[in-house]
Structure formats: structure tokens, C-alpha cells
Amino acid sequence: MPHTTLPLELLCHVLSFLPYHDLYLTRGVSRQWRALVEEHIYLDVKARQHRVSIVIGQAPFTCVLDLYASNYDPIQRVVHFKPRDGDTIVSPQSNNNSNRKYLTSLPPPPSWHLYHHRQMQLKFSNHSHQASSLCASSLQTLNPQEREKALFHLQYNPVLECSYALPAYSWLPSSDQADSHYVGDKSMILSFSYVPPLDTIVPNCLSTGSSPPAPQIKIHWLHVTFDWLISFTQPKIQPTQIYADRYSQLYHTLTHQYGCYKYDELSEPILAYIIQQDHPMHDVAPDDNNKGDGDLPKQLLSYVQEHTHEYHTRLSRLQHMLEGCCVNPRMIWKYPFAKSFVVGNGSLLSEEDVVRRIQDLEDEWRSLSRSLKRRLGSTAAF
Hints:
Layout: H1 8-15, H2 20-25, H3 31-47, E1 51-58, E2 61-73, E3 78-83, E4 89-90, H4 112-115, E5 119-124, H5 136-140, H6 144-154, H7 158-161, E6 164-165, E7 181-185, E8 188-195, E9 216-225, H8 226-230, H9 244-258, H10 268-276, H11 280-283, H12 298-306, H13 314-324, H14 336-342, H15 351-376
Antiparallel strand pairs: 1-2, 1-5, 2-3, 3-9, 4-9, 5-6, 7-8, 8-9
Helix pairs in contact: 13-15
Protein name: F-box domain-containing protein
Domain F-box: 1-45
Organism: Absidia glauca (Pin mould)
């Protein structure tokens, strides 16, 4: 409990008048303040029913499902979001606008490729598009081309533009699609599973019929950090690692006992292991033969050793390459050509081409911002 003469109820009432980003800044006062503020933010998000909307597909065939705050882990400092009971499945077969499952009133697409394009975005309801921090007088002094470039870069918010590619769906009858899949980033992890449609006709090379119907997607939960929530209104806030202690322990075990220094932290086996630490007795078989020498599941250890120095998603590969070029990986979402490459939307560019273009455009912006600062003075927010 922070040192204060105010009763806890009155203190929480005072905190309710502050926006989330101001509350977030007060976390640095002490550990007690951090615990109080984070719990207050969670309770406020839950009381106001702020939602995280999961948007799947591509316009105009996009579907959305809302998730609401359900739990808060004070030890891991992670907020849990879940869909409401009876509303956990995103289906292309039902156009129910009252439940906000479809963003458009168009009929379902004839091909599953249009709907299940493996593209997903997350939106937090408590956000507003931030105006540029440039003052009006500074904007007026710029020519139209400079003004357009400045606004493009200064109004960029990575979390609003971020897209994710869902794992591929298998039409093989032997595949167990009921198993949970995981999609993650530095500050969030999403769990879902595919629900195959009834009487699905498995396509083959000799098939001349229409494409099979799209699989349903059952959303289980979403885990996020507080900075992920705040970054929707404050794009300059840098994301922190979700379940940082678990990732650190896994890295320590893999490096010191097995010599595995490089692996894809966003791959599904890694994400599954990180999540399974919540219920290790239920998710890992009790047979000791399933464990390695360092108490890691043999399946996970085999995967890491087999795929060391490999990055299986386009997002993780680009992030790794940009970090090697001293470019902020969050700049991926600023440029349409990079977003198209990440979600596999017909991009003809190679990974090296995407990284090189991002690097060149960021260098161009840094040069322009330095020039504008010299012309407009040090007070210009470039």
C-alpha cells in the first residue's frame, strides 16, 4: 500500500479521474504504487467493459469478435481477455450484425481463401487517433510534400497498424484441428482453435468443384501486458516482454544446458510452453520420458535443436533482420509493402528487399526531421 493518508476507496476514486497513460506513468513511483495502479487500470477496463476486438479476414470480408477483461495476474502483471459465453466462435456461415461478427453486410465469400486469409488485427476500444504533436504554426511553414511526410511519420502508431498471420489450416482428416493454436508478439499471446465445418469435402488435385467452406475459428483467450493497452493512445510507449521471467528461464536452460542461443520466440511450440507454465501438471504428461535433462518437454527440446537459428514466421524473420540493421522492428507496420509481406498478401518482394526499403525510408525520414529541426528550431516535435 502506498504511503498516503487517504483511505484506499478515496484514493481509487481520485485515480479514476486520470487517463490511463497518466496512471501508467505513476507506476514508477514504487512497487506499491505499481501494484495499485495496475489493478486499478484492470478494474476500470472491466467495469467500463472496454473490449479488445479481434478482426479476422480482409475487407470487405472481415469478421470481428469482442473480448472482455476477465482476469488479472498480479504476479505476471498480465491482463486476461475472453469472449462472452456463447460467443466464442467466428464463423463465415452466419451474418449476424447484432453480435458484431461481421463488419459488413455483404454475404459470405464464395471461396475460403477470401475469408480465411490468415490475417488478423487487434483493436482496443479505448483508443483515439492522436493528432500530430506539431504545433499549427510549424505545420503552416512546411510545403505540402514535407507536411504530408511529417504527418505520415508522426501520426504512426504501430499497435493500430499491426497485423498477424494465423497458422495454416490443414484439410487432412488425420490432423487434429481441435488443438489450440497460438499467435503472439512481444506483449501479447492469443489462443484459438480451428473448428472444421461439418461434412467437409477434402480438396484434391483432381477436384473440379468449388472451394471447401471456411473453417470456424474458436477464440479461447487473449493475454496482454499493460503497456500493450496503453500504447493504443500513446504510441511512444515501448512494449515489454510478456511473461518475461518464463522467457528468461527458458533461455537460461536452453543456452546453458543445450547450447541453443537462437530460436524463434514467436513460434507455436515456444508460445505453448510459455503458456503451459500456468498449469504444468495438466499440459505435460507425467511420464518422465517426456522430459529432457533440464525438465523441458522432449518435444520442445527436439524442435528447438532442429530449428535453431530459424525463424518460421515472416514477422519474426523481419523483426530479427531489422534488429540486426539497428532499425526499430515496430517500423514494419508503417509501410504497406511490409505489411503485405508479413501477411502473405501477394507481395513479390524478398525479405532482403523489404528490410532494405524500410531502412532507406527510415534514413530518409531521419534526414528530413533533422533538416526541419534546424529550420523550425529545437521546439519542433520531430
